[in-house]
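Running this now, will post back.
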Amino acid sequence: MTRAAVVLAALLLAAAPAANAQHALGGSGPYDPAVPTPRAVLGYEVGERFTPHHMLARYLERLAATSRRVHLDTVAVTVEGREVFLVAVSSEANMGRLEQIRADALRLADPRGASAGELVAVVARVPATAWLGYTVHGGEGSGTEAAIALLYQLAAGRDPETLMILDSTVVLIDPVQNPDGHERHVQDVIRMLGATGVPITPGAMIHSGTWPGPRTSHYYFDLNRDWFLLSHPETRGRVAAFQRWYPMVAVDLHEMGSSSTYYFAPPMAPVNRNVPESTRRWWDIYAAGNIAAFDAQGWSFFRREGYDEFYPGYGVSWPILAGAVGMTFEQASSSGGAIRRSDGTVMTLHEAASHHYTAAWATLHTTATRARERVRDFLAFRQSAIADGERGPMRAIVIDRDEQGRADSLALLLLGNGIDVRRLRGPADLAAATLFGESAAQAARAGAGAYVVDLAQPNGRLAKSLLEPDAELDSSFIREELESRRTSQPDRFYDLTAWSLPLAYRLRAWWTRGLPAGLEPVSAADVASRPAAPPAVGRYGYAFAPGSEASVRLLAALLRDSIRVWYAPRGFTQGAARFPSGALIVRAAANDADVHDAVRRHALASGAVVVPLSSAAADSGTDLGSSSVFPLRTPRVALVGGAPVSGSSFGFAWFAFDRRLVYPVTTIAAQSLAGARLEEFDVIVVPSVRAGAFDGTLGDSGRSRLGDWVRGGGTLITLDGATAWLAAESTGLARLRLRRDTTRADSAGGAPLPADVPGAIARARGDTLSALLAGVGPSDIPVLVNSDRVYAVPRDLRAGEAVIRFAPLARLRLSGYFWPEVPARLAESPWLWTERVGRGRVIGFAGDPNFRDHFRGLLPLFANAVFLGPTM
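Update: finished.
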């Protein structure tokens, strides 16, 4: 059929009466004939094919235009320019007073200052709000199709059950949480689709998509891990919208392996200790409704296995800690639209979408029939968060401000999460304060301006979960895991076991039993409205300190603008300005005449503090004309991607270059390295990749060419798994090696025990004066441990090679879970390694410093490797 014919058919269908029409996923009529069916706008039945974003937008716009039950909003725009929608649906009466309902919901979300009578009145009149989020992973497309059918049912249905749900609830639907990834999936399927339909063979290309697959966002981030990190526009818009409503129920609808069935809450262990018992009770209530709906159809399902509720950044974990009954639903995937499963049956898109539709409808039915109870329990959650914070052993988190602005960045992040933040008007003595990383409480002193988070607030459970130094795992869970490990059973660690934000931001912080005095509230404007003043004209030039995000952005901008910058390895003072080792210098005479305007412009844009220099003379320390002050090269950077490179690690690095450093990078495929013009680059970054797979992709010629490039003066930076490739003897580029027992927890005979650390935080220390530590220093550096790889330094270790090493055993663990044998193996092993190879250099990170944009305290290390590594 031609495009013109498709459009004509759609118009004819749209004009036809819809009184007896119904969608294909099982809804019941009658329906409002003014509201178009999905088929009338899309040209096909829901579940027949995946819906591209522009057609989804068209249908949502038609619903909003034809149904007085529907309000359509755009909460964000993705990096690729697609709208992130939020659709509010309720009865016409409720829609007429929607702003009052929202105000009532917010009154319950923050009950401080309200009288008991006021709260009773609000509880009696406000509908329950339910949030349904679909397709946060782009390839999990049945969710979006189910959302379309659900929206039609709610917008047009006139049956008693639909009307009851609309009267009792406000339904908030995010039909595609990851538009860029979803569109990648839709287009992959369209390109692979033949005239005879979808091949059901599991190995067919239509089921795999192009590297790295459609799961992730534009930058290949898993948006289901971004809720509290707020790194991406989709998440920022979604969380802001959530805070405009504070829904009382939140469901995140996913897909899992095609041969599975259907999963809904309750989750498996571990469950975050900050989740109260009331939430667990509601999981069982909603499960009963889902069970009844699935049993009526004879469908299979499971609970309490496969999916935990420990990490607070999932699409339901964050809402749970804010007071919603959060639940993950997982449907067996239809992959490219139809796929043969291990039992010989075929899972189709229509079937998958039907299951999601049914589970969502059951959830709304339960919410509506128990609306008063759900509203009361939501209020009780928010009130008890305040009370628990007041009487709990951990009352407040105190975060010292730092000169590099990391505490300010964290304060802004917390405020973006809806968490109240205050600060000290002056220095304060803290009684019984426990420093993060230590176990004993003692007296401490926090500086003026230190940020204080009082956990006695409505979002206290969320604040505690994000900030506490160590998320507690149940001892019985650990005993079970140790026994499972001994008997070679898979573990149940689903994600990180440590994420504490003060540690991730490399900040000095305490938790206290009491609340310090002398506090004032802080808003985002208070934190963000203090840009550095532009520098006066410097006769000799300009200097700025290393190590802050502002300074690395400024350095990147200057180099990007072809402005020559020098590195001063020793500290110095000039007038009132004191600079640490690693200061960065712009010499006016060595640059073009417009250098003064360029420095001022970039200083303002980056927020970095830049000091004008009147002379090369230092009042103390090394004069700036010393030969020890060396010029930096402007690096031409390549980032390796494509199979077999980890798409996530690639995305983390790409995001760091694009959004944190704002520095141009050329992406090249791993398969192309053997024939690429490597001489066009000064720095090549290899994200995480399995060593054997990368070696196989390179082949002998690729490995040889890459080695020759390094020896000829290139700087090779390897991240996480790629460092295992660097450490292989066959590579010939480093004396670093993996420990021989790195893949087993013991070195004795018998069956090996898995030693993969499930995302813990360890203490590391810089032990050299390497330029890679500029602005970071040798003090405690929290790093993520998220693999079983442990490295050994060579016996002929040279100064400056083991730049960062893990702390000794007694001081190693900061947060999270390590298998019992691992700390002794990890202690004092290298985390950041560098050595000169011919005229070039290799720099290997044992972990990924850019992981999820989470460990912001490590960004300067990555920036130093890129910008300073080539001229060290």
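The first helix runs from residue 3 to 15. More later if anyone needs it.
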